[in-house]
Specification:
This protein folds into 2 domains: 2-37; 62-188, OB fold (Dihydrolipoamide Acetyltransferase, E2P). It is built from 5 helices and 6 strands. The chain has helices at residues 2-17, 24-37, 105-118, 148-154, 170-183, and strands at 62-71, 74-79, 83-89, 122-126, 137-143, 146-147. It comes from Culicoidibacter larvae.
């Protein structure tokens, strides 16, 4: 018993130095494995974004992996060819949730972050009609082959504050916003 406690302490110390955090259950399992088989399986390392092996999808859109969320219309992605970079959604605007808090901003951010993490395939279509003053790439995001920018407008998480008629999908966005407003969805529900 004394040896098991000593080995458990050593394992926790070694894994801690290596950057792992382990639960009491994992330590017990590791010690048990050590005594049962004399081999130890270490806990998994924190998961990094799995960079797509292909550069483009069948529609010519850049395939990316989600890296981290900033807010409802801005986040970081990583791609095979371009590494890690920050993107801004084209044509749509979600309420602020970072520096300046706006009505429905936290909900829009939470929805975006959750929805992107659930997606199996994330692809970017670049909007060449826009320039971003913060050096973000301006894109239409496709989640599992669905226009995510349009989804945000349809569900009332985004408005069209910065939309111009020359931008891709402008007509669809305007129709979706009108429907969301009429139905009082998301940010349009002020009650």
């Amino acid at each position: 018993m004394k040896n098991k406690k000593l080995i458990a302490a050593l394992i926790v110390a070694v894994l801690g130095v290596a950057g792992f955090t382990v639960s009491q259950t994992e330590v017990h399992s590791i010690v048990q494995q050590f005594f049962d088989t004399n081999t130890v399986t270490t806990p998994a390392t924190p998961q990094q974004p799995s960079v797509p092996t292909e550069s483009l999808d069948e529609n010519g859109r850049e395939l990316v992996a989600f890296e981290k969320c900033v807010d409802g219309d801005t986040f970081w992605v990583v791609s095979k060819d371009n590494g890690s970079f920050k993107i801004r959604l084209s044509g749509v605007n979600t309420p602020e949730s970072t520096n300046k808090k706006e009505f429905y901003g936290n909900e829009a951010s939470a929805y975006t972050c959750e929805r992107i993490q659930e997606a199996q395939v994330i692809a970017l279509e670049y909007d060449t009609t826009q320039k971003d003053s913060y050096n973000r790439k301006v894109v239409i995001v496709w989640l599992d082959n669905q226009n995510f920018n349009l989804e945000l407008v349809t569900k009332g998480y985004a408005d069209l504050k910065y939309l111009k008629d020359t931008m891709p999908y402008a007509e669809q966005y305007r129709a979706a916003e009108a429907e969301a407003k009429a139905a009082g969805l998301g940010m349009w529900n002020k009650s």
